[in-house]
Write a structure and sequence with these properties.
5-stranded antiparallel sheet, alpha+beta, 289 residues, elongated
């Protein structure tokens, strides 16, 4: 039977991040973003509404007919797009800026094979540009708006990177858990037990780690957080997940060595406190007695 001290675990703060299809707000303006083939795109049609709320497409077309705009777009494509049609780009650049020259996003994509600018039709559509190109366009529309856009975009990307780090550590703890369950299977589960009995043993051993690190069992966490989805480990911090992955490997070795559950619980709790102090200076975790 597991006995744990009174402790708390703070749910992970799920802040707004840039997802595959998302919206960021800059100075009360909602701007769509998408990710495609690992590239982040920002809707410049939404940005163009700063200049012309009724016909933002015309603003984008006007910007794209400028010679310095095409020079920048062409340079960007040469740097990042191995399939850029440079032969078709030359004549366009020669005409750019003249009174008769026109250019639209869809025509640019069709003629050059651009990946820096993409267009989407229908609801949620518009012209989307890779972030560097979008910032360039925002600067042309409004220097002030560009500064706010860059600041907000970078803030959300920073949050996104932190969550990616959390996800990687969560996956690591899941992989290490297989080592943990393998040790349980070969050392603690007799062949004659039923699957239900085996699952109970697995769950109890998982709670050895939960109690040692978080100070509560999975059931106690669910009872304390009835409105949260998932389980206790889904709301762990990155440092806690690092510690958990280490503890899973250590506990598997202790199981293989035939150490009793009560002894392992005390030892793992001591390891958790030591590692968390190193990782984040957390001296508030309770030592099991």
């Amino acid at each position: 039977m597991l006995v744990c001290p009174i402790n708390t675990i703070t749910p992970l703060n799920k802040e707004c991040t840039m997802k595959k299809n998302d919206v960021i707000t800059v100075k009360d303006v909602r701007i769509k973003t998408i990710a495609k083939n690992g590239i982040d795109y920002i809707c410049i049609t939404d940005i163009a509404r700063q200049k012309n709320a009724r016909e933002p497409k015309d603003v984008v077309k006007h910007w794209m007919r400028q010679k310095n705009t095409l020079e920048y777009l062409g340079l960007w494509e040469r740097l990042y797009n191995p399939f850029f049609k440079g032969a078709e780009f030359g004549p366009l650049l020669a005409q750019a800026g003249s009174n008769s020259f026109t250019m639209s996003p869809s025509r640019w994509v069709e003629l050059t094979g651009s990946i820096g600018i993409i267009t989407k039709n229908g609801a949620g559509g518009g012209t989307f540009a890779q972030q560097d190109i979008a910032f360039k366009f925002a600067n042309w529309v409004s220097v002030e708006f560009e500064l706010y856009l860059v600041k907000e975009f970078q803030r959300l990307k920073s949050i996104e990177q932190k969550e990616l780090g959390w996800t990687a550590k969560r996956e690591l703890s899941k992989i290490n858990y297989r080592i943990h369950t393998d040790a349980i299977l070969h050392n603690m589960i007799p062949q004659e037990v039923s699957p239900a009995q085996a699952n109970f043993i697995y769950a109890e051993e998982a709670d050895v780690l939960n109690v040692a690190l978080f100070g509560m069992t999975a059931k106690q966490w669910r009872e304390a957080n009835p409105n949260l989805k998932g389980n206790i480990r889904d709301y762990a911090t990155i440092n806690e997940l690092i510690c958990l992955a280490n503890m899973e490997s250590i506990n598997s070795m202790l199981i293989n060595d035939g150490i009793s559950q009560s002894e392992r619980l005390i030892k793992l709790n001591q390891i958790a406190i030591h590692q968390m102090v190193i990782l984040q200076g957390d001296k508030n975790r309770l030592l099991l007695r």
